[in-house]
Specification:
Helix content is 55%, strand content 7%. The chain is elongated and about 70 Å long. The chain has two domains: 206 residues, no CATH class; 196 residues, Rossmann fold, CATH 3.40.50. By secondary structure, the chain is an alpha/beta fold. It contains 21 helices and eight strands. It has a six-stranded parallel beta sheet, with helices on both faces. Helix 19 links the parallel strand 6 and strand 7.
């Protein structure tokens, strides 16, 4: 029996990521001279309902909304309390976006924030929920929400507002591009930098990225997150694992370290999935997280986002690593199946297993379904049981019920059922 456990919303009550998202947006709100504006829990729920589940996207989108409103404040001086004449002057070509080195570091973006923040204004609070819905509708399958948001916001400022909102001959448009075009690149993504700074704390941020922190802060992941897995269920699961009857794996889109077989970890691979495993008492259980698939993607000339769930590649690799513990070979075997090659070790030892997946996301359940379909076409003969995890009344429950074989209130309820069935066999 192979068991795939998602982290956020399943193994972990993920308070840290939400707190870091709110703090990230509030940081930029202050830097823009707008005071303290941040998304509410309700706004974050809407982002997630629109499949905008990565805070590097939702953070950048929220900050971009603030930037648009900040520059809109110059449109109507009598009601906004400032004048168009006080808008920071158009910089020279180098000042606006600097040298090649400035572009990589985002220095021009931070200088622009300083200029804008020096002139505080009051704005109407952006409707983050409405923007999230628009972005969700505009994001094509497989597309990045931040890229859809960039297109929407650029269209808005060019068609809905007069010349002052054209951002002084494209300067503001370039600031939006800085926020949204590379929001998964730590060297070029301002919102990602702040979010990771808050999540990891300033010391770990500098250690894993080699960057100076923007703020000194304790690690929110370690301070706020709590496990949903009850100690007795954890002990029962690990006992079955020791007996060779159950093969669990942590299966998550969270950032993680690279494959364990690497002699040295690459820069920028952070142990956020591993921290969740430790908090749940599953530190000895293998992890298949974003860092693993990002490493594979780099080897084959792709982006990590191409292979992380909802791609079936990560799910197939998770199944293999659960059974064998071999991370690099599991990743390579999964990628081979995805591109149409023949099945190979370490996927072959998984034949005839029952795969249980515990997820709070319908799209991730579909990814595992697709993975098992691909493997079964190769003759692996897997049986899949999809466990949706959402408490009664959760907005996620209706979408899960369309995909899952069974929906549980929490991971303990689902795991108890699975272990009881194993005991009765």
């Amino acid at each position: 029996m192979i068991l795939l456990f998602d982290v956020d919303g399943v193994l972990i009550r993920n308070l840290a990521y939400r707190a870091a998202l709110r703090q990230t947006v509030a940081y930029f709100s202050r830097r823009l001279g707008l005071g303290e504006i941040r998304p509410t829990d309700s706004d974050i729920d809407v982002y997630e309902s629109q499949s905008i589940t990565v805070e590097w996207d939702s953070g950048a989108i929220s900050v971009a909304a603030l930037l648009v409103e900040r520059l809109r404040a110059f449109e109507d001086p009598p009601t906004r309390g400032t004048s168009a004449a006080t808008l920071p002057p158009r910089p020279s070509a180098r000042e606006a976006f600097g040298s090649a080195q400035d572009k990589r570091s985002g220095q021009g973006f931070w200088e622009a924030l300083d200029e804008l923040g020096a002139q505080p204004v009051a704005i109407d609070r952006p409707d983050f929920s409405a923007l999230a819905r628009r972005v969700g509708e505009a994001t094509p399958p497989g597309g990045l929400p931040a890229h859809a948001a960039l297109s929407l916001l650029l269209h808005d400022v060019e068609t809905r507002h007069p010349a002052p909102l054209r951002f002084r001959d494209t300067r503001g448009a370039s600031l939006l591009t800085s926020l949204l075009s590379n929001c998964y690149d730590i060297d070029r993504a301002p919102a990602m930098q702040l979010f990771q700074n808050y999540v990891l704390g300033h010391e770990q941020y500098t250690h894993y990225y080699g960057l100076a922190p923007h703020v000194e802060t304790e690690p929110l992941l370690e301070k706020l997150d709590r496990t949903n897995l009850q100690p007795d269920m954890r002990d029962r699961l690990l006992a079955r694992r020791s007996a060779g009857e159950a093969f669990p794996v942590i299966y998550t889109a969270r950032p993680s370290l690279g494959p364990i077989e690497l002699a040295a970890q690459p820069r920028g691979y952070t142990p956020e999935a591993e921290i969740a495993g430790k908090q749940s008492g599953l530190e000895t259980v293998p992890v298949m997280g974003f860092g693993k698939v990002a490493w594979l993607a780099q080897q084959v000339g792709l982006s990590g986002m191409d292979l992380v769930k909802p791609s079936p590649v990560e799910a197939m690799a998770a199944i293999a690593v659960a059974r064998t513990g071999l991370e690099i070979e599991s990743l390579k075997a999964a990628f081979a199946v995805a591109r149409g090659d023949h099945l190979r070790y370490p996927l072959t030892p998984c034949a005839h297993e029952t795969v249980h997946v515990f997820e709070d996301s319908a799209s991730s359940l579909r990814a595992v379904t697709r993975a098992v379909e691909l493997l079964n076409r190769q003759g692996l003969d897997l049986r899949l049981v999809r466990h949706g995890i959402a408490p009664a009344g959760s907005p996620k429950r209706p979408s899960l019920e369309k995909v899952a074989d069974v929906v549980h209130n929490d991971v303990n309820e689902g795991l108890a059922q699975v272990l009881q069935e194993l005991k009765e066999q």
